[in-house]
Amino acid sequence: MGKKAKENVKSKKERIEKKSASIKAKKNSNVNYCCSLVSGLVAVLVVFLSYKAYMSLVHVPDLPNLDLDAWWGPNDTKLNQDTSIRPFRIVFSESMLTDLRRRFDDYRRLKKTKSFENATWTYGVNSDGYGQFFSHWIFKYNFQRREQYLNKFNHFKTNVQGLDIHFIHVKPKVDEDIKVIPLLLLHGWPGSVREFYEAIPRLTSPRAGYDFVFEIIAPSLPGFGYSQAPVRPGLSETPMAIVLRNLMHRLGFKQFYVQGGDLGHKIGTRMATLFPSEVLGLHTNMAVMFTDLPILVWVFGGVWPSLVEKDYTDRLYPVEDKVNFYLEESGYLHLQHTKPDTLGVALRESPAGLAAYIVEKFVIGTDPQNKFKDNGGLDAYNADDLIDNIMIYWMTGSITTSIRIFKENSRNKEMEIDMEKIPTEVPTWALRLRHEIFFMPEFMIKWKFTNLVGTTTKNVGGHFAALEKPDIFADDVFKAFKSFRGLRKTR
């Protein structure tokens, strides 16, 4: 090949290489551009999602638009609603007692499954410990005397929004210089108005250092005990708060005070949030808010617990221990949030099953360490008192309708979460007992209850404050409401 030909080949090769390099450079440029574009889009998406997450944590929703006269009863009673206030009496009918004793005999004849040796209550109810409790119901519970005891206070019913609502109403007898203030007591699940029997005399009796005493209104929540259940879905905590507020209006109380624990805390909080000019003060023995922000702070606080809570660190941490506890003890909640009616069939057919299901909640709620005791720590209560509560569920057949509220809360989840996020400005006081299932530091409580007047923290007691520790409960209610009344006088 000649010299000129070689130069042509070399030149051509150089042109090809140059063109290839140009194409490659262009491709790299395009790739870099695409990468930059994707990175930019990802950054924008991350910022957007972070903003959305932040807003979901701190955003305060508007109050929901609610029907204050929603009808929950049968439609055919709407035109003939009886709004009178009718006296009511608890009756242990002979037919009910005969049926109950027959079921007792059926249970005793069955070959009962024994618990593992040394298992105590870690698998649920312990056959020996529970057997002693159930034997008390069969052989020692005096039905006639307990019926009289349950009727020691005045009971009434009235129809509110289509539902016959049962309530205890106790008016104190005092001198004219003692102010009588109305107090709405709200129970939870698996409790009933029976929780307040020991506290009511303490709340309605004058005491030194206080110029007031309480007039007690203690209703059975709709679907619980002697209160009628709704005939259609939707009666979660917020609409239930409206029903009970309307009950107070029916009784002539346009302004009143509220105390609640468990579901009673949540319903009382909804009432205070919706009607801040009517609820003059709120006392709670379960001061918590079930929203994302406090949960995140609690979890991240596990790295440095004292930054979240200095004085009562062990009530919050270690996180792993608390999470394991909630996982182990919350299985019933999933059932009640999903299939309450199926569960209700089993519980309604067996007094032994119903009592076991309820009693186990008192075992754990009173002190989680009770599950390591042979008797489940049931000696913290008088057995008759616990059986009274079970009898209310059994006599009325209300276990199914009582646990439906958990399903209703799931159905109305968005509204109920919004209500949790809306600040409650009503003066609030929190009683925090040692073994309450949930504990929240004061700064977190103030995220929800912006006018937190005070807290009382004790190293005794558990979830069922009024029943287990009626003296501590009543003392704290008086202390709280004295502070509330002092605030009103200084305005």
Show the helix and strand layout.
Blueprint: H1 3-58, E1 86-88, H2 94-109, H3 127-140, H4 143-150, E2 155-160, E3 163-170, E4 179-186, H5 199-203, E5 212-219, H6 237-250, E6 256-260, H7 263-274, E7 279-284, H8 292-300, H9 319-329, H10 331-338, H11 340-349, H12 351-366, H13 383-396, H14 399-411, H15 413-421, E8 428-432, H16 442-448, E9 452-457, H17 465-468, H18 470-490
Parallel strand pairs: 4-5, 4-6, 6-7, 7-8, 8-9
Antiparallel strand pairs: 1-2, 2-3, 3-5
Q: Which key features would you list for this structure?
A:
nine-stranded mixed beta sheet, globular, alpha/beta, 491 residues, Rossmann fold, 50% helix
Explain this structure.
The longest helix has 56 residues, at 3-58. Strands 1-2-3-5-4-6-7-8-9 form a nine-stranded mixed beta sheet, with helices on both faces. It has 491 residues and is of the alpha/beta class. It contains 18 helices and nine strands. The chain starts with a helix and ends with a helix. Residues 45-53 have low confidence and may be disordered. The relative contact order is 0.12. Strand 4 (179-186), helix 5 and strand 5 form a beta-alpha-beta unit. Helix 11 packs across helix 12. The protein folds into two domains: 1-59; 75-490, Alpha/Beta hydrolase fold, catalytic domain (Rossmann fold).
pLDDT below 50 for ≥5 consecutive residues: which ranges?
45-53
Helix content estimate: 40-55%
> What characteristic shape results from the CA principal axes?
globular
Let me know the largest β-sheet: 9 strands, mixed
Overall pLDDT metric: 91
Class by alpha and beta content: alpha/beta
Measured by DSSP, the beta-strand proportion falls in 5-15%
Distance between the termini: 111 Å
Give the count of structural domains: 2
- Please count the beta strands (DSSP E, at least 2 residues each): 9
Query: Could you name the CATH topology of the largest domain?
Result: Rossmann fold
| H and E order | HEHHHEEEHEHEHEHHHHHHHHEHEHH
CATH superfamily membership of the largest domain: Alpha/Beta hydrolase fold, catalytic domain
Round the Cα radius of gyration to an integer and report it.
Answer: 30 Å
Count of helical segments?
Answer: 18
